[in-house]
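Tip: read the tokens left to right.
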């Protein structure tokens, strides 16, 4: 078999979701590591007064593309924006544009989706299921198409404990559901949604499962493969460590913990945190397209599915995530932190609710009162409310663990040459979690919050100030407790003196022991 770079040489690639987190990394990696690719057509809709060309130009001017710009200054010439809207009939493409793509495209990467977990079912179906059907219809017209890659999620079938690399039948007929949603009003759909999604936690995982089954039923003679990443996080190595550009998923939680706003969260310390770096997913995706697309004489009989996860190969637990976050942000603090970083994970819902009230709600109310008194606009309760909504969405995934079958991922790696394994590395056995988590946390500081490393000394000074304030507050609290409760009761004073004298004796003993040594 030809290597991966050779496979993409001279190819025309079509991408959806190129302006999303994963799409950007896929576009950058494809152009940088496969310089022989002929052209990459990116389907982008107009947004906020910007057409597709303007949005692509703005996207490739970000730091993510700096390395590519240095290595290939003319890379932008290979990017061809295609003005399109996946929610509109025939993708909002003219007959002429569809014909041009049908004559041109060799590889399709369908990455576009709504990643909002609690999207109304109608909207989630429109973006995750119907858009996939429209992309398949367009792919059927392509005369030179070699492979259609669909990016799904490892949690599409999270109602199962063991998830194999197969497409599972959904609990309802997706065709009938599409027809029913067409005439139902929003209120009726909202009422039926809990019954429809069943054991799945949200409409995102439900509709991604439907999209997979639709692919299996309607792909026909198309060569299709599905890549299922778990929780996609910051980059591991490429194009540089720690790149992240959004608050989605765990990133926003990490930032809230670093700012000292997040103090408690419902999660199981022993549950596997199935984080997977974005560059690992992208390398596996490019390799999956190469493997299926280059095997023209021996195409697989069924859709190949790749569970791109870490939990079964190199497990990392949420308790370890907690430790890494606290350590990193205490050493390299975020600027203008609200409190010192000290997040705690709690599996008991009652205990977590108590600490949520004590360490989130009450301090937020006090701080908003202070802002009002100083003539400023209160904002902390609004921030806390958004944080709690985000935590409720993630709670299901931080409290459960799954068993993943990754035989196809192992097989894919086995077919790669030693050179391809280096250039398109997705071997998560090599991933050192403590280093990656530090890089991830620092990435949120540098690329999401745009904080310069030169500001670290001032941030550390601010953190020390917060520590001193906490010590002073605790001292005042102890004095008040003494004055209000202990000083007025002879029994309480006796207990207090007994505890103090006991502590003094222990200290004297240890001091004497150390002197004798």
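Filled-in amino acids:
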């Amino acid at each position: 078999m030809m290597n991966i770079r050779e496979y993409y040489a001279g190819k025309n690639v079509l991408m959806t979701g190129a302006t999303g987190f994963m799409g950007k990394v896929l576009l950058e990696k494809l152009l940088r590591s496969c310089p022989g690719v002929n052209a990459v057509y990116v389907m982008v809709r107009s947004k906020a007064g910007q057409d597709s060309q303007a949005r692509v130009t703005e996207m490739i001017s970000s730091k993510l593309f700096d390395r590519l710009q240095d290595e290939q200054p003319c890379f932008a010439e290979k990017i061809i924006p295609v003005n399109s809207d996946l929610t509109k009939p025939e993708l909002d493409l003219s007959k002429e544009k569809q014909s041009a793509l049908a004559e041109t495209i060799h590889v399709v990467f369908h990455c576009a989706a709504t990643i909002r977990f609690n999207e109304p079912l109608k909207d989630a179906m429109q973006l995750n299921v119907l858009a996939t059907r429209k992309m398949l219809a367009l792919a059927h017209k392509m005369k030179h198409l070699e492979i259609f890659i669909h990016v799904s999620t490892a949690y599409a079938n999270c109602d199962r404990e063991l998830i194999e690399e197969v497409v599972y039948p959904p609990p309802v007929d997706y065709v009938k559901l599409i027809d029913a949603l067409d005439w139902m009003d929003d209120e009726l759909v909202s009422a039926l949604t809990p019954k429809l999604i069943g054991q799945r936690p949200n409409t995102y995982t439900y509709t991604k499962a439907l999209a997979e089954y639709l692919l299996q039923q309607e792909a026909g003679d198309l060569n299709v493969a599905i890549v299922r990443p778990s929780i996609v996080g910051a980059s591991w190595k490429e194009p540089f460590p720690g790149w992240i550009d959004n608050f989605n998923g765990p990133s926003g939680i990490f930032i809230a913990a670093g700012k000292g706003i997040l103090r408690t969260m419902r999660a199981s310390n022993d549950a596997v945190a199935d984080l997977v770096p974005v560059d690992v997913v992208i390398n596996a995706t490019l390799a999956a397209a190469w493997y299926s697309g280059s095997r023209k004489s021996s195409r697989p009989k069924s859709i190949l599915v790749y569970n791109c996860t870490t939990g079964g190969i190199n497990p990392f637990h949420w308790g370890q995530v907690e430790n890494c976050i606290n350590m990193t942000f205490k050493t390299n603090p975020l600027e203008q932190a609200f409190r010192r970083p000290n997040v705690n994970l709690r599996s008991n819902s009652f205990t977590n609710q108590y600490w949520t009230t004590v360490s989130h709600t009450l301090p937020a109310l006090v701080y908003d009162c202070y802002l009002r008194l100083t003539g400023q606009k209160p904002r902390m309760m609004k921030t806390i409310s958004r944080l709690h909504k985000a935590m409720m969405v993630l709670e299901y995934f931080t409290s459960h663990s799954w068993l993943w079958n990754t035989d196809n991922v192992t097989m894919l790696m086995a077919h790669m040459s030693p050179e391809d394994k280096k250039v398109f590395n997705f071997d998560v056995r090599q991933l050192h979690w403590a280093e990656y988590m530090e890089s991830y946390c620092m990435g949120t500081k540098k690329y999401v919050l745009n904080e310069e490393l030169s500001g670290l000394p001032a941030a550390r000074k601010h953190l020390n100030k917060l520590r001193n304030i906490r010590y002073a507050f605790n001292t005042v609290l102890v004095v008040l407790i003494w004055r209000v409760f202990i000083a007025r009761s002879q029994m309480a004073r006796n207990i207090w003196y007994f505890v103090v004298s006991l502590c003094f004796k222990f200290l004297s003993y240890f001091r004497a022991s150390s002197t004798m040594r």
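The chain has a mean pLDDT of 90. Residues 487-517 form one domain.
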